């Protein structure tokens, strides 16, 4: 009798262990959102400028940029050369959403900023757009090895599911390009507000021609081809911009 009972108990325990293992939730090693380890985020802002006002807008922004950077940290400010016409792109760093709200409130109450910049700049624009991004956990911001050169922003719209689905494949494709010197990765970012399941990679090159040569060489590299082939199975679309840093940009 006791032998039967003990056998039943062992069998029940084994079944429970199997069930628990099957019910374990896999952890995404590069997830953001609720698993974000700190509050720092980056606001990507894109402004479209009236064609006839492009030069005037860039000049005004260069002259008055100090009024804006007195309130929060600017990572970079660029004029788009390819992939967008009469367009500027800039990245702002915030430690928290509360800090950003406080900055925006202070700017609205800053008479010099409002009178000398906003009142003049806003009529020059046709539209504005923004999105919030986190640095992916495996990436740190890396400044270019020298000033000058050009920047490429590549936006990857991935299939729904988040990093738990496509994170490892995306990381392999990006780091493979960077590891063999086909581009200098400044940062890789994962969207939090804006288009979801979107990843942005910011690259630096010495010149547009150096970028073209590096891309041509990468297309013949079996290591890169294999990594990209895996990543694109999760890709819906991608878009890029080639940009030149403006005079007041910290990233030059």
TrEMBL record:
Top-level taxon in the UniProt lineage: Eukaryota
Stretches assigned to the NIPSNAP domain: 42-140, 151-250
InterPro entries assigned to the protein according to its UniProt record, in alphabetical order: Dimeric_a/b-barrel, NIPSNAP, NipSnap_domain
GO annotation terms (biological process): mitophagy
Family to which this protein belongs: Belongs to the NipSnap family.
Name of the protein in its database record: NIPSNAP domain-containing protein
Species this protein is from: Umbra pygmaea (Eastern mudminnow)
